[in-house]
Amino acid sequence: MTVLLFEDSVVPRLSPITTARPAFCVTAGSYHLLDLVRQLGQPLVASVRKHLQPLCTLDCSPLRIVGEDVPNDLADPQILLNARLLPSISTLETIRALLGKPDARGAVWHGDQLAAVVRPEWTWDSLTGSGLNQRLSEATSLQRIEAPLRLLSFPHDVIAANMEIIRTNLEHRIATGEYQQLNDGVFVARGAKLGEFVLTETHDGPIVIDQDAYVGPYTLLRGPIYIGSRCKVLEHAAIKDAVSLAHTTKIGGEVEASVVEPFSNKQHHGFLGHSYLGSWINLGAGTCNSDLKNTYGTVNMEYPAGKAATGMQFLGCVMGDYSKTAINTGIFTGKVIGVCSMMYGFVTSNVPSFVNYARLFGQISTLPPEIMIATQQRMFSRRKVEQRPCDMQLLHDMYRITQFERDKIGDDLAF
């Protein structure tokens, strides 16, 4: 029973979160969608944007990427899932229920957006190349199935979803039996270590600490929290209220209601709240973001794809992969920072991808991909990660894809 994950035309609205990763690898509540569909135990195939195909082929096992080639050794797909599905246990249960009903056949919608197609009479021959998009455009003619599947449409949806689903997702992790209860509501996996005088509060949700993670002494942990494998939380940190830290991250200072993807560092003092950080980010010492307007009003966001009213009172920043901040950088409320940019001083406006941003000093300049390739090599080496040709090519591709962001600021950009 083959499962096909597909990226649709709305995925670019999730940038910069999805510039360097497929939508099914966006984390919320400690899981991303690929984590969940792997639990189905079925063959997995995905259709992703072309610039991400080499990375997915290497890094998303056992997922297979379908492009122009037909996977002749697999049965035709029994269910097609939008890669933007909310990565919640409720989503997983709904997918299982749909697969468990032999008579379920048709399309599931979230508003006017296609969430899933169940048991279509579509062959792989009709789904390769441009065929998949053609079939998806015809889904309105399929019988409508009522099922509670939700989609992420904007980056702030990820931050809101993380707060909403993290407790249930953590309870699902605990139920696997892979964690030992250390204290009331505190669960640790093999090799996890806590320093002395760590204070834990779990009345609002559990604390789950995965394999070989470390929490330093004199730290406050207030659940629900997920601390991923090989994550290092430094001494005197305060991690609280719906924080999801992916594997191999370094975290210090105060972090609240935020998602941090793998290999990112926020290891010094400073506040990060109601925010999303991609991978390979480094926040310099003293970097803080604001997540509340002085007026206490709701935050409106301006993304590369357009403006959006969030309805959220607390909303910090969204930062794309490979971006960096200098010491004492201050990021204003609701700011969007693209991939591969470096920031200095106060971030009072959105930051395009691939720029040096020092607007406080009247300077914004282009950051060529060759510089980011050299930086990537140094970062990878420090973490004992091999820099592959596809990693370097990704930076070139992202530079090309995000050119429109730099074009928007026109004369302000020095080359």
Structural account:
The strands form 7 sheets. Strands 8-9-12-15-18-21-24-29-32 form a 9-stranded mixed beta sheet, with helices on one face. With 415 residues, the protein is an alpha/beta fold. The protein is 21% helix and 27% strand. The chain is built from 8 helices and 36 strands.
Give a concise summary.
With 415 residues, the protein is α/β, with parallel strands linked by helices. It is built from eight helices and 36 strands.
Which secondary structure elements does this structure contain, and how are they paired or packed?
Layout (H helix, E strand, L loop, with lengths): L1 E5 L26 H6 L5 E4 L5 H7 L4 E2 L11 E6 L6 H11 L6 E5 L2 E6 L12 H7 L6 E2 L9 H21 L4 E4 L2 E3 L4 E2 L4 E3 L5 E3 L4 E2 L4 E3 L2 E3 L4 E2 L4 E3 L2 E3 L4 E2 L2 E3 L2 E2 L4 E2 L4 E3 L2 E2 L4 E2 L4 E2 L9 E5 L2 E7 L5 E2 L4 E2 L4 E2 L4 E2 L4 E2 L2 E2 L7 E4 L4 E4 L2 H14 L6 H13 L1 H7 L6
Parallel strand pairs: 1-2, 1-4, 2-3, 5-7, 9-12, 10-13, 11-14, 12-15, 13-16, 14-17, 15-18, 16-19, 17-20, 18-21, 19-22, 20-23, 21-24, 24-29, 25-30, 26-31, 29-32, 30-33, 31-34, 33-35
Antiparallel strand pairs: 4-6, 5-6, 8-9, 27-28, 35-36
Helix pairs in contact: 6-7
